[in-house]
Design a protein that fits this description.
- The protein starts with a helix and ends with a helix.
- It contains eight helices and no strands.
- The mean pLDDT is about 95.
- Helix 2 crosses helix 4 and helix 5 packs antiparallel against helix 6.
- It is mainly alpha-helical.
Length: about 140
């Protein structure tokens, strides 16, 4: 039997960890139900299977890699989404997730202040507006 080039290449690679069940458990630990419902079910009718791929590849793959804590991953997410801009729903969810992984309100706000000289004041201010709204929502939910 002849080994193909791609089979030979695959033998040289470390297998990626993709765990669908663990992805959904990780999603539940990181995101509240409102955040999950705001994003994932809405895309299912439009792109069947894409939301499941996101959960499996991201939460059941990337998030399970060694090297960064969940808190560190949230710092990176806040910075990347703010620098990208135009992704307010995702940034809102990640602000809430940052609280869930133990970041304080002050630490979250400081991320945006720290980003200003690197990504520009307008994007940092836009991030702060999203953060303020997400933090207010979280505080209202906690008061109930």
């Amino acid at each position: 039997m002849t080994v193909t080039r791609s089979e030979a290449l695959a033998q040289k690679m470390t297998p990626a960890r993709l765990d669908r069940d663990e992805g959904y458990r990780m999603l539940d630990s990181l995101q509240d139900e409102a955040t999950q419902q705001a994003a994932l079910p809405g895309i299912e009718p439009l792109a069947p299977g894409f939301a499941d791929w996101i959960v499996t590849a991201l939460f059941g793959g990337t998030y399970l890699r060694e090297g960064l804590s969940l808190r560190d991953r949230q710092l990176v997410n806040l910075a990347a989404l703010t620098a990208l801009g135009g992704v307010d729903p995702q940034l809102n969810g990640h602000v809430k997730t940052s609280l869930r992984v133990g970041m304080t309100r002050q630490e979250i706000i400081e991320v945006f202040v720290h980003l200003a000289p690197y990504i520009g004041v307008p994007k940092a201010l836009a991030g702060l507006r999203v953060a303020a709204s997400a933090l207010a929502d979280t505080e209202q939910e906690a008061a109930r």
